[in-house]
Amino acid sequence: MLDGGSSFSEGGINAAPLRRRPRRLSEVFAQLARDADGDVSIAHITDTLGGRAFAPLLVFFSAINLLPLPPGTSAVLGLPLLIIAAQMMYGNRRTWLPEFLGKRSLTAEQFRWMMERVIPRLARLEKFIRPRYWPFWRRQGDRVVGTIALVMAISVVLPIPLGNWLPACSSALLGLSLLERDGILFALGSIVGVVAMGVVAVIVGSAGYAGHAVWGWLM
Question: φ and ψ at 28, to 5 degrees?
């Protein structure tokens, strides 16, 4: 019988403690959904995931913005992403959100609906993630990921039609890469970010061209 952290071998008791596997982020999100009772505020989510845990918060708010939500929702749910990314870029050691934003909340049913769509996709992705080829020191990685995620978050918050999905995807991948120290995933997230900026540029350029054409026709 195993008790505490000890394990047995054929020759007797091996006193070396068993190493517990760190909980995957999908497991943390699942626990958060199970414990949801009543309204779930943004401040509660932030506190539960950890005041110093920038990467999980980055993944969480990025993943939420990947869901098919009503128009204008990204302006609210994208704002925490913007603030968290900015704090990472500046090297803050604790997260901070303004009070008016922390008080915004979802019902337990709405929150579970979101998690039911995020968790399975996250769990599948986690099977392929592992520490490898990480090119940064710890704090340096926070700042680099935060800088890229800040650019992506600005695109998420802006009311650009079809312009928020790829930036949110890039931020989620970058947050996971930082959490697991996966250099390959960091490269993939960066590539998605470059593609996202290209798509946003095309959308904005096309809208500007169309607006100029309409203005010329009216004049």
Answer: -65, -45
The pLDDT tens digits of the residues spanning 152-205 come to 999 888 877 667 889 999 999 999 999 999 999 999 999 999 999 998 888 777
> In 3D, which of 180, 164, 195, 181 has the Cα closest to residue 82?
164
Q: Is residue 7 part of a domain?
A: no
Q: Tell me if 16 is assigned to some domain.
A: no
Residue 180 lies in a domain: yes
Q: How many distinct structural domains can be found in the chain?
A: 1
63-88: pLDDT as tens digits: 998 988 776 677 777 889 999 999 99
Is residue 207 situated within a structural domain?
yes
Give the domain extent around 209: 21-218
The residues, ordered by sequence, that sit 6+ positions from 23 with a Cβ below 8 Å of its Cβ are: none
